[in-house]
Amino acid sequence: MAFTSLKGSDDISFAAMRPYQIALGVSYLDRGWFNLSSQAGYIRKGGKEKIPVYDNVGSALTEYLVLKTGADYVSVNTTFQLKRNVRREIYYVGVGPRVDFRVNHFSSFAKTDDAGLPVTIKAKPVLYGLKCELGFDYAIDRLLLGVNFSWLPTFNKQIDPGYEYAFRDQTFTLGFVAGYLLK
Fold first, then answer.
1. Which of 140, 121, 164, 150 is nearest to 4 (CA)?
2. Which phi-psi region, left, alpha or beta, contains residue 125 (left: φ > 0; alpha: ψ -120 to 50)?
3. What is the DSSP letter of 159?
4. Which of 21, 92, 179, 181 is the least crowded, having the fewest Cβ atoms under 10 Å away?
């Protein structure tokens, strides 16, 4: 599960969405107290805002309009993980570079240009950042079951349409791990 929102300039932001994320990875160069871990996966980043809609000024609330904007990405990363093995338990903390490639974008609103024509707000095609993670795995023979929590800070802005408002994503993930030890 991902927890993602958009923060913009002048305290303008979009509230959190909770889309799913999925990744496939491999850990290698295991030296007992550290290893490398590489992953490729899919994640949705963006935000939504719930705006009340009224019939007339001062009248009762009739409904809500939900505005969403963001994009779907294929994300690749490699982290350096420091780890500690205690019996069947593996505790780790890791950090490493991450690149997200946009495969789709979505926006439920549009800005108009000088001629009054709609201009769709698109997310950047490539995002650069880090993956900072901590986790826990439990080994049952060769099977690993665990939990991973990650913070995904991004260096560039996710949405920058070239006018006064630009938005940077804030993304956290909570994942359940299922793995298999090859050695």
1. 150
2. alpha
3. B
4. 181
In this predicted model, what pLDDT tens digit does every residue of 135-156 receive, in sequence order? Answer: 999 999 999 999 999 999 999 8
Give per-residue pLDDT as tens, 46-85: 888 877 776 666 666 667 777 778 889 999 999 999 999 9
**At CA 154, angle to CA 152 and CA 157, rounded to 5?**
140
Q: What distance in Å separates the CA atoms of residue 120 and residue 66, rounded to the nearest whole number?
A: 17
One-letter amino acid identity for 70? Answer: G
Q: Which residue from 90, 122, 98 is spatially nearest to 23, judged by alpha carbons?
A: 98
Both tokens of residue 150? Answer: 């990650």
Greatest distance between any 2 Cα atoms in the chain: 69
CA–CA distance, 61 with 180 (Å, rounded to integer): 53
Give the whole-angstrom CA distance, residue 175 versus residue 94.
15
Q: Say what the pLDDT of residue 90 is.
A: 94
The SS3 of residue 181 is coil
Per-residue buried b or exposed e for 50-78, using 16+ beta carbons within 10 Å of the residue's own CB: eeeeeeeeeeeeeeeeeeebbbbbebbbe
User: Model-level pTM?
Assistant: 0.83
The helix/strand/coil state of 9 is: helix
Which residue in this structure is represented by tokens 């791990």? Answer: 177
